[in-house]
Structures are given as structure tokens and as C-alpha cells.
Fold these 4 entries.
Entry 1:
Amino acid sequence: PDRVPGRTILLPFELPMLDDVPATAPRLAVAAAGTGSGWRRAQLLGSTDGGLSWASQGETGFPATLGAVRVAPGPGRAALADLASVAEVDLAQEEMVLVSADDAALDVGANLAMLGDELLQFGDAEHLGGTRWRLSRLWRGRRGTEAAIGSARPGDRFVLIEREALKVLDVAASIGSDVAVLAQGVDDPAGSAPVSVQVAGIALLPLSPVHLAATETGEGTRLSWVRRSRNGWQWRDGVDAPLAEEAERYRIALESGGSVRLIDREVPSLLLSRADRAQALRIEVRQVGTYGLSSPARLLLPPLGDDQ
């Protein structure tokens, strides 16, 4: 059909690993579509030096199903199905369609979407008319993005994750640096503005530990936690999650009375003395990975009284 391509809608974002192969470089994915239904592809350029030089990154993938958040889902938990929250999104074109999926389909990866910085899945997709859709029966914080739960705001990106619609860029960028991406499609004007993304390293850094707990023993207070793996998404009974890092290491921060003490450990436990418990104690535990630190697991312990 002879349809107008329209201008390119370009949404680059950092993507967690979707398989069990550990990443060795940041994964910058690009989803693109057009303001017109005739849009098919665009050429991509990338820059890691603030736009001083540009390198060809090939073509975009197939037209993606994308748009913007209109109603954000708010807080939730990654370990439970979120049956209370809903999200509403505006897709870029009326021709774009979302479908519902049952739990069995969700379990094998259906309806995976990037909403803001949170990777989630939705079970129910309700068409509200025009380009507006309501998403519910949410599985939140997928693939280690639970820290982004509740952070989405109206206007943030929405991208349905479909492998054939994503272009993963090969960029030599370090964590904390910016990558600029520029698209050049048939109807894109000269001098189109690039889109920049700051590399956070979500595919490179280990996941935060879980089940951080304190147990009183005759020797003192024993902290324990359980590590996770950025290469251990499948549940295999009787087999520990793969390490996916050079070594098993942890960094524990103990904050008390305005001072912070850092302790490095190679095992997922630490014994605290009674002196450590004299004041309220804020605890953060991070896994030390090959490329940096994980986000923290946190615990607040009250002071240990004389009668305890």
C-alpha cells in the first residue's frame, strides 16, 4: 500500500539480558517506528563522544509497537503478581495492537515490555479507543529491574519487547557514559535531533542480594543473605544459580552514629558483635561483580538492649 512513512520515532534504552548468556558489554537496544503507517526502517548512527563523531549502526529492526505512558502503575512487588495496579499507554499509531496472555504464556515470556526503566509483563490488554490501551495483571520488575518499580511517570517510553523489532547496538561505552543515537528515515528532515542514553550497566552488574536477615546467636548477631545471578534466570531444582562473576564477593556497609564502616566478605554471612549493636544500625549488602557493584539489599536493626 502507498502509505506515508512519517517521521521516525526513536526509543533507545538499556536492555537487561533476556537469555542465559552473561553480557560482557552494555546492551543498548533501539526500538523505532514511524508517525505514519508506511514507515518500515531507518538508518542508525551512534556517537559516544558527545556527537563529535558518528559511526554507522546499520538499520533499525522491524517497526516496533511503542508509545508513551499516560497512567503509570505505581509501586508494587516483583515477587507477586500485581493484580491491583494498572498502566495506561498511548501507542504511536492506531494500527498498533496489544493482546492479552494467560499465565502459561507469561511464564514463557509473553507480553514483555519496557515501561520507563521497568521491564514488566502484562496479562490483560484492554483497548480504550483510538491509541489508548489499559494494561493490568502485571508481573513487575522482571530481569532484575525491581529497583525501577514505581519510578515511571506520564510521558515515559513504552516498548513491547519483540526480538525482531529491536536493534541491539555494538557500542564501546563504559558505565556512566552517554551514548547518542540518530535515525535517518525517508521522511526524516535533515538535522534531526539525536536521542541520548546514559549507560547504567544493568546487563553487566550483578543483581542485589535477597533475603537479608539477622539472627541472634550466642556469639552475636549473624547476618545472612542469598545472592542472585544475572545468568541464572531458569529455576533448576538441586542446582545452585551460576555465579556469572569472577569471584563471589560482597561489600557490607554498616552505618551507625553518623559513621560508616565497610567490610568485604567472600561468603554470604557476617557476624556482628554486641558493640556493633550498641546503636541503631543501617545495613547495606552489595555483591561485587566483575564490572561493578550491585544495588543494595537493606536492613535496619534497632539497638541491642542490655537485657537482650
Note: The CA atoms of residues 182 and 235 lie 39 Å apart.
Entry 2:
Amino acid sequence: MLVIAVTGGIGSGKSTVAELFKEKGIPIIDTDQISRELVQPGSPLLQQIISEFGQEYLDAKGHLKRKDLGRLIFANTSARDKLENLLHPAIHSEVVKRLKKISSPYCLILIPLLARSKQLYPYDRILVVDTPPDLQIQRTTTRDHLDPDYVRQIIATQPSRDDLLELADDVLDNSGDHNILKAAVDRIHQQYLELAKQRS
């Protein structure tokens, strides 16, 4: 099976792209979703995180205050490293487990922080969803109701657009409308089916 790692900055449209592939029957492994599942109330990983960062990051129902913790780690490199050292090995292990259960010509793994990850994820190609920074800011502020300056800070902590494009085997330009993106996904879907066929 051909494994495609999908990455891109905040607000680039990775989830939208994933949905378009999903409509074609392509399995998606979303590392952000896995991270949410791994820190459900009472989970061992959540207990480790709270032990490291403090009870103030738990709400009254025992859920992780993700936005509060997000603000801390974007402002504090040391805290970000500590959190990533807790989360990433657990996410990596779950990704490997899920890959073993998939039967498909190819699949996608959404890995937003691939460029910075210390984990060696199993993949054959990297697909970068590329969006100009101004559009990233506009989409993220609309979607998450965040201050534009805060979104700029988040973008500044992420790998640069140039760094991401340098990593890419394939690029999906998501600066246009939905129909343009859909057509681009159609084309690359056919390319991946052909590559998967050549491998089998």
C-alpha cells in the first residue's frame, strides 16, 4: 500500500483536502484526531500531561483545556517540547497500528507538524497543502474566532512555507475556490492510484 503523509500550515485546508479524498473511498489517519482520542478524561496520557503542566489545564468535567494549553506552548518553546515528547510517541504508535488494519491501494496520514516531528512515520510520499499566509490567517480567524495577531504567532512557530514546499513530493495549491481544489484532488488521486498499481 502507498502511504501519503499530508502536511501544511494552520488554515491551509488539510481537513478539506482529506474530506475530498475520503469521498473517493481513501482511508484517512488524522493525527490531530488521534491526539484528541489519546487525551480523553481519565486516560494515562492526560494524567501525564496534567502532572507536567498542572491541574489548571483540566476543566470541571476532566477534559483537557486544549486552547489554554495551546496558548502556553505557542509562547514557550520548552513547554512545547515537553508536550510533544509526551504526545508524539503515543500518536506514532497508534498510526502504525491503524496502518496495519488498512486494505486500500493508498491511504493518507494527516501530520500537521511533520516537518518538526522527531517520529519516523512510515510514508512513501509527502503531499503539502499550500496556501498563502494571508489566506491562512483569514481562514483561521474565521474558523476558530482567534485574533489575527495570535494566528500570526502560531504561523511563526510552524515550519515556513518554503521549508514545507522543499519537503514536498507533491503540492496541492489551495488558494483558489473549492471547485479548483476538487479538480486538483481528482488529478492527484489518479496519480496515486497509478503509483500504487506500479508498486503492487
Note: The beta strands are 2-7, 28-30, 106-110, 125-130, 170-173.
Entry 3:
Amino acid sequence: MSTQAPRPSAASDGGAARPEAHAPWTTLRLLTTTTQWLKERRVDAPRLAAERLLAHVLGCKRVDLYLDTERPLAESELAPYRELVRGHATGKPLQYLVGETEFMGLRFHTDARALIPRPETEILVDLLVKQWSASSRPLRVLELGTGSGAIAVSLAALLPHVEVWSTEVSPATAALAHANAQRNDVAERVHVLVMDRFVALSADLAGGFDAVVSNPPYVRTDELDGLPAGVRDHEPWVALHGGADGLEFHRTLCTQGAEFLASGGTLAVEIGSQQGAAVRTLFEEAGLHGVRVVQDYAGLDRVVLGQR
């Protein structure tokens, strides 16, 4: 991809080639050209991608790009933008490229140490927020596999009477979750514990939590290779692979995890869209009652809840 082409085009340089003197790369021209270039490479939402990457490089909001559409861009701005556009065209997620994303109205650092928080996971958080919003008593939550900390941090930020203990097998990922707790001013109420599942938790904690929550790995072994390239090639497999049937961690949650629930406490887990019936059965076999499966925005099974 040369940056010296006398007549740059979207097809040659991702909208970031060196322009001729009489045709400077203005904000609008760059966005238009990059959008077309990404579209030709079958990138999802190409205009949104072009805007988010340019706003990141310029250190502004997306809306600000349209307040001065004829602003000429310097090579010092084009060069990093070009690199980001190329990276996204090869499948690297936008959230990793810009280093952050939004979840439940909060900002989270994102990188390859953890899965990118998804809108579907907001359903789990929202269900618990609604359940507890009228309560003022202190509540204790235990989470398996916090990843970026999206669930734990959101619960603590939205419910000031909630304190969360989260387990995470990877020290590097745990550090990311802690950074997100600090970023959202809830580090005093979000405790990230480095361990595999619940193995290092004291037996004295049994029955001591108002909820056990998780967005566990739930992709079946035979599904891994068929995941979208951006997920398969860039997001951590350890946070995706749920064993042969995708339910390995759900079993842990329904046995070991449920033991930490207080009487009346809630077990709430995210699931794959085809796992509702199987996870409901696991909940019921674990002696949980009031079990229900909640659908996502597309009408697909996404969360299962039950009480001890």
C-alpha cells in the first residue's frame, strides 16, 4: 500500500494515502473514502468504523468530526489512522484498536486480555439492577470469570449498596478488571481474586452471597473454528471455550457456585442462544427454584436465573 500514489483512491490505501496538493485529505473526504474502502473489504458498519477510528486518532467525539468537515489532516494524523484502518480491515475489533468500549453507560478499557463486553450481557446486569434497586441493605455478589470487569463494575457503579468479589484465572486479565474498577470509581467495592473458578475460596463463605453471577465461556468445541474471524482470531479462547457441549462452566456454577448463595440468593448466568433448556435443567437439578430463561433483543435465550 503505497502512500506516494499521485492519484490515491480508496482501493489503494484505505482512504489515507498522501493527497495531491490541490486535493487535501479533509475530514469529510477521508471518512467518505475510507468508508468505501472498508465496504469493499466487507467490513461491518464501515462508516461507523471510519468515524470511530478517526475520532480516536484526533482525540475527539464522533460528532465533532462533522463540525469542521473541511479540516485538512496532517501526515502525522493520517499515518496512525492508516494503520488502524488496515488493522480493522484484517478483522481486528474496533474496541481493541481504540482501547475502550461502552457498557451500561460506563467506559471500559478493552484489549486482547479479555472478551469485548457485549450488549447482550447488559441484560443480565439490568435484571439484577431492577431486582435490587428498591433495596438499601448491603448486598454481596460473587462472580466467576470477570474478564474486563464489565458485570462487576457495572453492578457496583449502578448500585452503591453492592459489593462484588470476582474470580479470574489470568493475572493479566485480573489487572484489566481492576483498572476498569478504578476508572469507574468502584475499586473499593470490586475485589478481583486471581484463581481458577472458586477453588481458593474459603468454605466459610458458603451461603454468604446474595447472588452468584457469570458470563462464562459457553462456545462448544466444535463451534470454535466457525466463529466470526474477528472473534476467533483476536479474542481469548479461554474466555470462549465452554467444553464439548459448551456447559462445563455452567455445571460448576450450579454445583460449586450455588453453594455460596444465601437462602433466597440468585444465580444468574449468560448462555448461548441454544442452551436455555439445558441450563434450566441444570438449575433445577441443583435444587434452585423460580428458574426462568430470559431472551435477548433478538428473541433468543440469553440469561438463566434461579433462586436458592
Note: Confidence is low (pLDDT under 50) at residues 1-12, 15-21.
Entry 4:
Amino acid sequence: MRVKFFFFVRRAAGTDAIDVPASTAPDVQSLMHMLVQKYGPAMRDEVMDERGAVRRDLNILVNGRNIEFLDGVQTRLVDTDVVSVLSPVAGG
């Protein structure tokens, strides 16, 4: 699957996208934990809260659909998916 990074998550990853086999991250939660292992503390700060859960204010889209309207962090992933991970952004 293709994982795209935006805003502060992109900075933490040091790249704008990676390809990951769905077998290594079968759902969104597994994917976020895999990203933390791959990219370390900077990524953890962007995608996890203080309890180690995926941040609720993080915007994660699977094939353009927000996971809030799918199965949340339990949303299953397949190799043909495109996952977009966006930091929360504020401003006027």
C-alpha cells in the first residue's frame, strides 16, 4: 500500500510517501505502530498520544475516506490502499 505523509508527519518521516506491504500492517492501528518503530520518537510525537494510542486529532484517510467514517483505527488495509496521514492544522 502507499502511505502518504503531510505537514508535521511528513517532517517526522523525512519523506512524503512510502510503500508498505499490507501484510506488515493489516489495519490502521498496526500501521501507526509500525511507523513509530520505523521513524522513532519524532513520529511517535506526531501520531500517538501520551497513552500510546493513535491521536484522535490525527487525520487518517484510506482511499480518500476518513477512518472516522470507516472502522476507525481497526480499519483493515490491503495492498492496493492509499493511506494519507495528516497532522492536525490550525490557523485562520
Note: The longest strand covers residues 2-6.
